[in-house]
Amino acid sequence: xxxxxxxxxxALAILVTGIIILISSAVNSMNMPIGDLPGWKQIFAQDxxxxxxxxxxxxxxxxxxxxxxxxxxxxxxxxYTPDRVLSVSGGTLDYYxxxxxxxxxxxxxxxxxxxGQIYGRYSIRFRSDFLPGYKIAFLLWPVSENWNEGExxxxxxxxxxxxxxxxxxxxxFDNGAMAFDPPTHSYSPTDSSDxxxxxxxxxxxxxxxxxxxxxxxxxxxxxxxxxTKFRWxxxxxxxxxxxxxxxxxxxxxxxxxxxxxQYAYAPSQ
Length: 269
Description:
Helix content is about 15%, strand content about 40%. By secondary structure, the protein is mainly beta. The chain has a 15-stranded mixed sheet that branches. A hairpin with a 2-residue loop joins strand 3 (about 85-90) and strand 4 (about 90-100). The model is unreliable at about 1-30 (pLDDT under 50).
């Protein structure tokens, strides 16, 4: 019996290990979903299947993918320098965040153009390195550039922790300071060091945020939900706040996007 057990247990361990590897592999190589969903019409899909060398992304994917250029980021500490940051290889969009010439180099992508839409579903599969001093804000921003129309953020967070969603309440900037809904922070169950799918669903009077298909948070004030055209913008930039650390010049690493989907609101579908 002892000899029989000695032979079986290594085989069982190998089998279990194989199952774990297969599951992990399936999660980390999840294919981009194609097609409409109940209530949603898929209008854009991008899986970054065509390589683009550093400095050449606009030639392959268009000028919008290059996004903002040669201006300061939100904290004013970094410079949007897409030609030094953005490339595509191995089926992923890569942001190489680093310091050059004494300035943190960051990028902001507008993946599906500046025209925008009212309401929508937005889903992105991404990951990031551990990069203190940097953050991401993948957000919906008013086409009009009028912040008083609101703002929808997800995923957003410093690149040394978890992500947190928020929706800026439309009209609240009239009072001198933008208010956000929900008023308390919720966070993703994990950080973004592994591959995850973040999804925003924006409908009349409601915004919901999902992490790997699980609801993380939702708005509570229907009247505060934006009602004008917004465009999807992926900002990788330096951290915000008076106590935010300036990125150490030695800090360098990557934010990667595997695929992204945009849907139009189609309640009758």
